[in-house]
């Protein structure tokens, strides 16, 4: 009976959190559509999400493309005695899956945790309550700029990561596999269309929304002082990564079914 009671309490708590998350997202859309945007704050958050994430995205995407080219080239060389279609594998893997997913996970770990910690600290120190006293709605001032920054800058970072991963594959082909640049590009251009690029970019819009939703929600509903801020930050990273990976499959299946990708 104790186990059943604990299970019931867990599902009741989960339902309450999902309801609060849904209402928080509804309020964010309301203030977004109301159009009273803090332009300076939006630009600040875009720099934070986009420009300041460039170093870690660069390293992640560059070496992902390099290791893809190395492993696929050596594997095909062992099977066919010649590295075949390395460019095709690297480009399609980066554009369709690895570019959007890895970039979003990196941004969730760097930016999502920072957003949750910042807003969570404001919550436990009653700065959010002070915004109400000043006549400023916290969701309009804190949530909307981060929402716009995430949904616009994550796709830009994904396009950057895709390009850098393909260039990383080219570097390995030239230095390790002995594949000429012309052969590498000839393996890419006939198979990589704009529809494949759009597949990853469309998914990245949703991944950016997930990062915003989870990080801002956990920040706004932080409680328990400094320990609570730590819990919110950890929960943001874990939940964001899990939701990105789960949604990747369903978004990919849906986009393929409607002819994108």
Give the SSE map:
Elements: H1 2-34, H2 39-49, H3 54-80, H4 86-124, H5 127-133, H6 138-177, H7 181-188, H8 194-220, H9 225-257
Q: What would you say about this model in short?
A:
86% of the residues lie in helices and 0% in strands.
Number of strands: 0
Report mean pLDDT, rounded to a whole number.
91
Shape: elongated
Order of helices and strands: HHHHHHHHH
Distance between the termini: 50 Å
Given helix and strand content, the structural type is mainly alpha
Runs in which pLDDT lies below 50 for 5 or more consecutive residues are none
Largest sheet: none
- Helix fraction bin: over 70%
Radius of gyration: 22 Å
In total, how many domains does the architecture comprise?
A: 1
Q: What amount of the residues lies in strands?
A: under 5%
Instruction: Count the DSSP helices.
Output: 9
Q: Give me the oligomer status.
A: single chain
Structure description:
The chain starts with a helix and ends with a helix. 86% of the residues lie in helices and 0% in strands. With 261 residues, the protein is an all-alpha fold. The chain contains nine helices and no strands. The relative contact order is 0.16. It has one domain. It is elongated and about 70 Å long.
Write out key terms for the chains shown.
261 residues, mainly alpha, 9 helices, 86% helix
């Amino acid at each position: 009976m104790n186990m059943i009671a604990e299970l019931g309490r867990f599902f009741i708590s989960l339902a309450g959190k999902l309801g609060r998350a849904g209402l928080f997202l509804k309020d964010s859309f309301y203030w977004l559509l109301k159009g009273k945007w803090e332009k300076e704050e939006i630009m600040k958050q875009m720099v934070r999400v986009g420009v300041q994430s460039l170093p870690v995205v660069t390293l992640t995407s560059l070496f992902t493309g390099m290791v893809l080219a190395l492993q696929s080239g050596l594997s095909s060389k062992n099977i066919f005695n010649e590295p075949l279609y390395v460019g095709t594998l690297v480009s399609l893997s980066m554009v369709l899956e690895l570019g959007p997913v890895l970039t979003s996970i990196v941004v969730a770990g760097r930016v999502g945790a920072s957003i949750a910690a910042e807003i969570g600290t404001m919550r436990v120190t009653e700065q959010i309550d002070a915004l109400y006293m000043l006549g400023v709605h916290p969701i309009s001032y804190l949530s909307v700029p981060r929402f716009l920054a995430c949904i616009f800058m994550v796709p830009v970072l994904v396009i950057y990561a895709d390009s850098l991963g393909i260039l990383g594959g080219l570097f390995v082909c030239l230095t390790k596999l002995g594949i000429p640049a012309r052969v590498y590009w000839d393996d890419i251009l006939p198979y990589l269309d704009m529809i494949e690029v759009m597949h990853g970019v469309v998914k990245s819009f949703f991944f950016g929304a997930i990062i915003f939703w989870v990080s801002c929600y956990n920040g706004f509903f932080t409680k328990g002082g400094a320990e609570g801020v730590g819990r919110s930050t950890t929960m943001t990273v874990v939940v964001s990564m899990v939701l990105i990976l789960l949604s990747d499959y369903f978004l990919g299946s849906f986009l393929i079914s409607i002819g994108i990708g």
